[in-house]
Write a structure and sequence with these properties.
Elements: H1 2-7, E1 18-28, E2 34-45, E3 69-77, E4 80-82, E5 90-92, E6 105-113, E7 125-132, E8 143-144, E9 148-149
Antiparallel strand pairs: 1-2, 2-6, 3-4, 3-5, 3-7, 7-8, 7-9
């Protein structure tokens, strides 16, 4: 038994989180218009330090890094992707995913976008770019959703 345990390969990932786009799921109201959505991304992190607690509100978790999940909204205007101002932005706080014991982790994060998840503009094609940051403020790569045609 011990011989087999010694042969198990330890999983290692980079210390900077790595994310991949998973899915975009939309929810419609009784009239068939888009009302909410869910974005799923997969992640890996070599230190297992993704997540902020409610008490993480002093440096360095202030300003930009008060949040650790950043969605940027884009809409296609006359064939060109434009990032209109969105207030408040689609920034979120991911809670701790494990106890922060330095172990490599992997999994899926679901991001629920409540209505409206799109700008009330005349344009109907949108997309999101997404990145996350871990407790050490390592920022992940940026992934994008495919084009989304909004049903208003």
């Amino acid at each position: 038994m011990l011989l087999l345990a010694g042969c198990l390969k330890k999983i290692t990932y980079p210390t900077t989180p790595v994310i991949k786009f998973g899915t975009f799921t939309r929810y419609v109201n009784a009239q068939g218009a888009d009302s909410a959505a869910n974005i799923a991304i997969t992640y890996t992190d070599g230190e297992g330090d993704i997540g902020l607690t409610q008490g993480d509100t002093i440096a360095p978790y202030v300003g930009t890094f008060y949040y650790n999940c950043f969605l940027e909204y884009y809409e296609k205007q006359n064939g060109i992707w434009v990032k209109p101002p969105i207030n408040p932005p689609f920034y979120y706080r991911i809670p701790p995913l494990i106890n922060g014991d330095g172990q490599a982790i992997e999994g899926t994060i679901g991001i629920r976008l409540s209505a409206p998840f799109f700008s009330p503009s005349a344009f109907d094609t949108i997309k999101f770019s997404i990145k996350i940051a871990d407790r050490a403020l390592h920022e992940s790569n940026v992934v994008e959703t495919p084009e989304i045609v909004v049903v208003k």
